[in-house]
Amino acid sequence: QSYCHRLQHDMYFLTSTSRLNEQVVDKIVLQLNRVYPQILANEEAEKFRNPKASLHTRLSDLLKHLQKKGDRHCQEFYRALQINAEQLFNDLPSRKILKTPDPTEIDTDKEQYMLNDRGPVFFLACFSVAAGLALFWYCCNSETQVVGRARRILGFSPIIIGRHVRNICLLYLEDIPRN
């Protein structure tokens, strides 16, 4: 959906009573004039900031003017609105349509949360189990002669592996050469 169509859709919402006050409209006009002078020239900015005209009229004229100018101008209006009135920007009807989830689309934020909800302790526990199983499988493989080296590694690892687990592994390693 183009920004011009979105602006047309949001026009009633923006011009309705007490949505935008004069200060916010003046800030938007000044931003469009000073930051993007190609969007609003000085004469146009003065016309849309004229305090003699009603706020509703000035805002309606500004929105119609931007729609005539094209999609880029409407996009910059939305950017200025977001900067100067973020809550109103988030409440726009066109934003609510854009936020409506497509049932066939994957919600990446929700998917990311579902993947990361276990935390680092769960990851470390899974990694420890996998490393332990890999070490156990490697030590039990009859083709490798690493019992002595594994025994030395396990002997020097009271900090990494609990004392009881280490003793069980050492007993198992001692039983392998007997079989």
Automatic annotation (TrEMBL):
Keyword Electron transport: no
Topology in the lipid bilayer: Single-pass membrane protein
UniProt-listed InterPro entries: CARD, CARD19, CARD_BinCARD, DEATH-like_dom_sf
Single GO cellular component term: mitochondrial membrane
Alphabetized Pfam families for the sequence: CARD
Subcellular location: Endoplasmic reticulum membrane; Mitochondrion membrane
Top-rank taxon, per record: Eukaryota
Gene Ontology process terms (BP): regulation of apoptotic process
Keywords, in A-Z order: Disulfide bond, Endoplasmic reticulum, Membrane, Mitochondrion, Transmembrane, Transmembrane helix
SUPFAM superfamilies the UniProt entry points to: DEATH domain
Transmembrane segments: 120-138
Residue ranges occupied by any CARD domain in the UniProt entry: 38-96
Subunit structure: Associates with BCL10 by CARD-CARD interaction.
Official protein name in the record: Caspase recruitment domain-containing protein 19
Source lineage: Eukaryota, Metazoa, Chordata, Craniata, Vertebrata
